[in-house]
Structure formats: structure tokens, C-alpha cells
Amino acid sequence: MHQEAVVAPLNTPIEFVSTFTRYAGTEVIGEGGTGRVYKATSEAGDILAIKVLDPARASKDRRRRFQNELTFGLRNEHKNVLTVLDHGPIRLAGNDTSFYVMPLYVCSLRKLLQTKIPKTTALPLFTQILDGVEAAHLQDIVHRDPKPENILFDSKDNRLVVADFGIADFSRRTCTRPLRRMTGHALRTLSTQPLSSGFGEGTQRSPRTSLRLG
Ligand SMILES: Nc1ncnc2c1ncn2[C@@H]1O[C@H](COP(=O)(O)OP(=O)(O)O)[C@@H](O)[C@H]1O
Ligand SMILES: [Mg+2]
């Protein structure tokens, strides 16, 4: 199951306040296992996206994973990995949780795959995913869930970014907090499908990076 089609304008915008500025979350544009993603407008008028850790699902383990995801995104400099722009705390329905701000993308790869992607476009797009995953591997981070819902598309420059490092393995990194050890099997979600599906027959995987999960 994937929840791409959740587009719901909010009657009352949610106010997100970071250290230096504030944002108005105006509509829900996505939802997954961790929380909700909102379309938002910054004080300066930029249209962005904000991901919020659902307080109802925010166990200690999930909070740490969210923190790792956020920290990694803040430090990112690779064009095929999601960059986090800002972050902060928020109180929702009486519960404290966290949010982070990122660029707004047109859609996820899941939606893009519903259109007919020509073979000539498919291979360069697939290579971009490998580049993003490889960039994480080079920092000793294994994504573990690179399904199409977790890859976002920028139509301005035909660019894909690997997003949602929520169940990534950061344990080999010295700068992160230890996480409770869980098996890769338990962390995978049911909608995970091979990334090659929908990319057209005959697409070869780059030998540079393995997409094996776990
Ligand atoms: N920056 C973004 N721009 C547009 N849509 C986004 C963005 N980030 C996430 N989404 C949408 O929200 C969905 C859930 O986001 P994701 O980070 O995968 O959350 P979760 O960790 O809960 O799975 C994605 O599958 C995608 O459809
Ligand atoms: Mg996701």
C-alpha cells in the first residue's frame, strides 16, 4: 500500500517555528510510516515541504531515527540525496514532536512510474538513484528502504533524490546515536518493490552500487 494520493488542504494552517523563521503548513501532501508531509510557505514566501514525526508513533527509537535522518539531510551535499533546509520542535494535539523542512518535489518516483517513461530517460534516472544510494554508502549509511515512494522527482532538471532515511542503518557512523538492533526483515515495508520495475526491459544495473536491502 502506498499513500501518494493524500492531498488535503487544511482548514487552519499549521504554524511551524524554527530557530530563525516560521512556516505555514497548508496541505497534507504525503504520509508514510513515520508521519505526515505538508506543503508549506516560509515567511519569505518560498514554497517548501515539511515532514513531521507523528507524535502517536514517536517511540524513543523512532525519535532517534528521525534525528539521524534529519542530521544526515542537513549535512548532505549530494544532488541525488534529499537535503534538509531547516528544522524545529512542534507541539501537536498536546504532544511534543519534531519537524524538518525540505524542498518541495513534484511527486515521488511511484507516481512518475505511472507515466510511460521512455527507455532513453529511464536509464539516466536509474543511474541517479544509484548515485544517491552510493553517496550514502560512501558515508557508511545503508538506506534499507529505497522503494519508489522514498525517491522524489524534480521536474525542473529531471532529477531524482533519495529521501526518507527513516529506517536507514547509521550504526557504522561514529557521529550518530546507537539504535536498538532490529533485523532488516522487520524494518522493510510490504510495498517495497524492485527499483527496476517500470523502467523498461533490458535496463542494466550499474555495477558500482548494490541496492540490496539490510
Ligand atoms: N519533499 C517532498 N516533496 C513532495 N512530496 C514529498 C516530499 N517528501 C515526502 N513526500 C511525499 O510524502 C510521502 C511520505 O514521505 P516519507 O519521507 O517517505 O515519510 P515516511 O517516513 O513516513 O515514509 C512520500 O512517499 C512522498 O509521496
Ligand atoms: Mg517513506
Blueprint (SSEs and pairs):
Elements: E1 8-17, E2 22-31, E3 35-42, E4 47-53, H1 60-75, E5 86-92, E6 95-103, E7 107-108, H2 109-112, H3 119-137, E8 151-154, E9 159-162, H4 184-187
Antiparallel strand pairs: 1-2, 2-3, 3-4, 4-6, 5-6, 7-8, 8-9
Bound molecules: adenosine-5'-diphosphate and magnesium ion.
Structure description:
With 214 residues, the chain is of the alpha+beta class. A hairpin with a 4-residue loop joins strand 1 and strand 2 (22-31). The protein has a domain at 4-103: 2-Layer Sandwich (Phosphorylase Kinase, domain 1). 20% of the residues lie in helices and 29% in strands. The protein contains 4 helices and 9 strands. The strands form 2 sheets. The protein has a 6-stranded antiparallel beta sheet, with helices on one face. The protein has a 3-stranded antiparallel beta sheet with strand order 7-8-9. The structure holds adenosine-5'-diphosphate and magnesium ion. Residues 4, 29-35, 37, 49, 51, 102-105, 108, 149-150, 152, 163-164, 166 line the site of adenosine-5'-diphosphate (ADP).
Give the structure's gist in a few sentences.
With 214 residues, the chain is of the alpha+beta class. It has helices spanning 60-75, 109-112, 119-137, 184-187, and strands spanning 8-17, 22-31, 35-42, 47-53, 86-92, 95-103, 107-108, 151-154, 159-162.
